[in-house]
Design goal:
Blueprint: H1 4-8, E1 37-44, E2 49-56, E3 59-65, E4 76-86, E5 94-96, E6 104-116, H2 120-126, E7 128-135, E8 139-146, E9 155-160, E10 183-184, H3 186-190, E11 197-198, H4 212-231, E12 248-252, E13 262-266, E14 271-278, E15 281-285, H5 297-304, E16 310-318, H6 328-335, E17 344-353, E18 356-357, H7 363-374, E19 381-383, E20 387-388, H8 391-400, E21 405-410, E22 418-427, E23 431-439, E24 452-458, E25 461-468, H9 474-485, E26 508-509, E27 515-519, E28 533-537, H10 543-549, H11 554-558, E29 573-575, E30 580-581, H12 582-600, E31 605-609, E32 619-621, E33 633-639, E34 642-648, H13 652-660, E35 663-668, E36 681-688, H14 694-710, E37 716-719, E38 725-730, H15 737-754, E39 759-760, E40 772-775, E41 802-803, H16 819-828, H17 845-848
Parallel strand pairs: 12-22, 17-19, 39-40
Antiparallel strand pairs: 1-2, 1-6, 2-3, 3-4, 4-9, 5-6, 6-7, 7-8, 8-9, 10-11, 13-20, 13-21, 14-15, 14-16, 16-17, 17-18, 21-22, 23-24, 23-26, 23-27, 24-25, 27-28, 29-30, 31-32, 31-35, 33-34, 36-38, 36-40, 37-38, 37-41
Helix pairs in contact: 12-13
Length: 849
């Protein structure tokens, strides 16, 4: 597939007198979802003709079709084979000057993807291509058959198959039908072309369809009807659901939940696909927000045909077998162009439609509206049905039917942007995803490699978890070998344990970028995979995805990990008196992430946001909202007003996304999102009234510590970063909030009664003069207190710094550590001032007796 002939026939380059045709012949890396493209160009050369081009490998195989394609079933059109063209030629439109080969106007007539069963190069050599086109004007089945006619160039016949897309029309007739006004060329993208859009034919050669003006009023009427229906849902809001929204992700469970609060869907084995329909234009995205709009035109066309102009869809892109089961291998073959099976977009949620945000409506209501929108007859779009209740029975039945598992969802839950416990995944076999870090040489008749070496993110970077040597067919071996060959490196990404039965010198190391899904039967005593078998490459995931999904502690993942997040307006002054800018705030939180994340990871948060800086209007936010970032997660929590989405994070990316949204203070719950009803931290906030000096505040903290010890509870001390101190009590999460609140109230009241000249346990400011308010109200469900190492939104830029009890006497004030000094303290620390707080096993006194 050499492009030498293409170069020989043209004067390429930037010099005067050169042809404007593309000269960038080297194709760059493409999207994981790149499918082979086709393009048809109308060429007004000395003899007007159509150029028909199919991507095979890194070139466009090309034929000149003098009369253009015919859409009549069985009608044959001469197609003369010409030289291969570079992929970047798919985006070319313009005038080739006189005196150059092919002089004349070139316009893009149609563009899209194509596929066939089997290897296209083998079919090309055999002289018969039987394929399908997915374009704007040309669709359905076609054939190219090589003839025995003699001539200077090889001659073929282009024939339309008899299918639903066959019609009594010529290619010229379709010039009157509108093509896509702007289609990003996959091939052009992969070739790193400077132009990345394809336009329809020039206005002089293509007039708008006569039906176009009437379509807009009909669409407006349809949207008005759907707008009314959507607004009728509970908690619907009369505002469009945001485009580019983050998907809801699943939690994991070993067993299917039971009860009427749950519905159960099939777990489809494909690629997560998000669709934004806006003003009739469709954008398709992967779960990682890669733009897949042009890779699946048949899906885009099906979505555009819905009876609305605005919708947000969430679903899975799959290929189904004869039994209705999703087949991931078949999906990969369709994507690489070696299979013609139809794609299915199975849609399971609808957070927005017709300009209405219905994300807070109960799931069951959203799904009912979704089913009506898609319709009962499955096609390219299909509705993901469900079963109410009976989770264990549904899970068992899914296994007998050969499905991978089920997804169970709470029927009344809102749509959350991020991982939430209202969606859980239950699978029939244990699988996980790991990074490929190397491979061993093949043995016997096997080609390519023997086994893959796998690793997982760990606190030290990557940890070796074992080898995978089974689960590969010949096609997988060839594809993986080609990918591994491009990633070779002399340095090892992991250190091999001493007990592995091979030497590191025998390993071919690769850069840890490929993500593999592996089935296995638990873990061996050395921490290695047992009976591992390769399932597939996850081309829709990257190494950072494993870090965010990892079960390792968030602080461990944060250490040494620089965030790629760009902070906007880093020059904005946040602390005017200290002249501290937003960029410096971000640098502080990035550096302090290993200390801060253990305090807040996996806990509902209240955020103090100051968009205009300290001294201007600031506000608290506890509910999740759009724009916070995809690493800022939502957890649905039951409140008196109903289920509400609260904010939480679990990694440094989420922390910095909060800073990007002008968050200064972080106030976590005293419980985790995994167990929000049982607190594991109590906080007594010592708030001094007028006339109370720092020495008295320190004495009060020591007094409270001693009184807690009398009840059997150890505690830890923290500077508030403002005026007072916090005494923090860790607990085993056994007591509920009512019990915790009752204990804290009784404790504070007892202190106030014992020493009324020193303490008060009521909020009334009139009673605080000269005494310390022991704020025990921080220990109610939903109440929060500032976390260790958080900045405070005060002029001094103080930090809430944790101390060892023996350090308290040497500290001069509650805001003794502004930002710069807090950083310096953290660098000097040789250990955690609160060492042992996570391992201390203590419960409320009433539960311990």
């Amino acid at each position: 597939m050499s492009l030498d002939q293409y170069r020989r026939k043209r004067r390429l380059g930037a010099a005067k007198g050169s042809t404007p045709e593309p000269d960038d012949l080297q194709a760059g890396p493409g999207s994981p979802a790149d499918r082979p493209i086709f393009v048809v160009q109308l060429h007004h050369a000395s003899s007007r003709h159509y150029d028909f081009r199919l991507q095979m490998g890194e070139v466009l195989k090309s034929w000149a079709v003098p009369k253009g394609p015919s859409l009549r079933a069985g009608e044959k059109r001469l197609a003369v084979e010409v030289e291969d063209h570079p992929l970047s030629y798919a985006a070319f439109e313009g005038d080739i000057p006189q005196g150059h080969y092919g002089a004349g106007r070139v316009d893009v007539y149609d563009h899209g993807n194509w596929a066939m069963d089997g290897d296209p190069l083998e079919a090309l050599a055999a002289g018969k291509l039987d394929f399908e086109l997915h374009g704007e004007r040309l669709r359905g089945g076609w054939k190219l058959v090589r003839t025995n006619l003699k001539g200077r160039q090889v001659q073929w016949l282009l024939i339309k198959r008899n299918d639903a897309h066959a019609t009594d029309a010529e290619a010229d007739d379709l010039l009157q039908a509108p093509a896509a006004t702007s289609i990003t060329a996959t091939g052009s993208r992969r070739a790193a072309a400077s132009k990345n859009t394809l336009s329809k034919s020039t206005p002089s050669k293509a007039t708008p369809s006569k039906s176009t003006p009437a379509a807009a009023p009909r669409a407006r009427k349809a949207d008005a009807r759907w707008h009314k229906r959507a607004l009728a849902l509970h908690d619907a809001r009369d505002t469009p659901y945001p485009r580019q929204y983050a998907p809801q992700l699943t939690d994991h469970r070993e067993n299917a939940p039971d009860g009427e609060r749950w519905l159960h869907e099939i777990k489809w084995d494909g690629y997560r696909l998000l669709a934004d329909l806006h003003d009739g234009k469709v954008t398709l995205r992967s779960r990682n927000h890669l733009d897949w709009s042009d890779d699946f035109p048949e899906v885009s066309q099906a979505i555009a045909a819905l009876p609305v102009n605005d919708a947000r869809l969430d679903g899975e892109l799959v290929v189904l077998d004869d039994q209705g089961r999703s087949d991931f291998s078949a999906l990969q073959r369709v994507i690489d162009g070696t299979a013609k099976q139809p794609l299915r977009y199975i849609v399971f949620d609808l957070p927005g439609v017709a300009g209405v945000d219905i994300s807070r409506a109960p799931l069951l209501e959203r799904k009912t509206l979704l089913k009506t929108l898609i319709g009962d007859v499955p096609g390219t779009l299909a509705y993901s049905d469900h079963v109410l209740d009976h989770g264990p029975a549904v899970f068992a039945a899914s296994g007998k039917a050969g499905f991978e598992g089920i997804i169970s969802k709470q029927v009344d839950a809102p749509y959350a942007n991020g991982r939430a416990r209202s969606w859980v995944k239950i699978k029939h076999e244990q699988t996980d995803e790991f990074l490929v870090v190397g491979y061993t040489a093949p043995k016997g008749a096997r080609q390519g490699f023997g086994s893959l070496l796998m690793a997982t993110p760990d606190k030290a970077g990557l940890r070796y978890v074992g080898r995978v040597g089974t689960g590969f067919d010949e096609a997988k071996l060839r594809a993986l070998s080609a990918s591994l060959g491009k990633l070779g490196t002399s340095s090892a990404a992991v250190q091999l344990p001493a007990h592995v039965p091979f030497r590191a010198a025998s390993v071919h190391w690769v850069k840890p970028t490929l993500v593999a899904e592996v089935a296995f039967r638990g873990w061996g005593k050395e921490g290695l995979l047992r009976q591992a078998s390769f399932k597939r490459l996850r081309t829709d995931k990257t190494a950072p995805d494993l870090q965010s999904d990892s079960a390792q502690p968030a602080a461990a993942r944060a250490k040494g990990k620089a965030s790629p997040l760009r902070i906007t307006h880093p020059e904005r002054v946040v602390y005017p008196k200290k002249k501290i800018r937003k960029g410096e705030v971000a640098d502080y939180y990035r550096a302090m992430a290993p200390w801060i994340l253990p305090e807040i990871s996996g806990r509902p948060l209240s955020l103090l946001r100051c968009p205009q800086g300290v001294g201007k209007a600031c506000f608290f936010q506890k509910h999740h909202g759009q724009g916070l970032g995809d690493a800022v997660r939502a957890v649905p929590l039951e409140q008196k007003s109903g289920t509400e989405d609260y904010v939480y994070i679990d990694d440094v990316e989420g922390l910095l996304q909060l800073v990007q949204m002008n968050t200064l203070e972080l106030h976590p719950w005293g419980a985790t999102v995994a167990d929000p009803e049982h607190p594991d931290r109590l906080v007594f906030d010592l708030d001094p009234g007028d006339g109370v000096n720092w020495t008295q505040i320190k004495a009060a903290a020591r007094d409270i510590r001693a009184r807690l010890q009398e009840t059997g509870l150890e505690s830890f001390v923290r500077l508030s970063g403002g005026k007072g101190l916090h005494v923090v009590v860790p607990l085993q999460p056994q007591a509920d909030w009512e019990q915790a609140k009752a204990f804290c109230e009784s404790f504070a009241q007892a202190l106030a009664q014992h020493a009324p000249d020193r303490y008060v346990a009521t909020m009334s400011k009139a009673k605080r003069n000269g005494v310390i308010f022991i704020d025990w109200l921080r220990n109610a469900r939903g109440a929060t207190s500032v976390c260790s190492w958080s900045l405070r939104a005060r002029e001094s830029a103080g930090v809430a710094v944790p101390l060892r009890w023996e350090e308290l006497g040497r500290v001069a004030s509650a805001d003794a550590f502004p930002l710069d000094k807090a950083l310096a303290r953290a660098k000097r620390l040789k250990g955690d001032p609160w060492e042992g707080i996570t391992t201390l096993e203590q419960v409320l006194p009433t539960l311990g007796r």
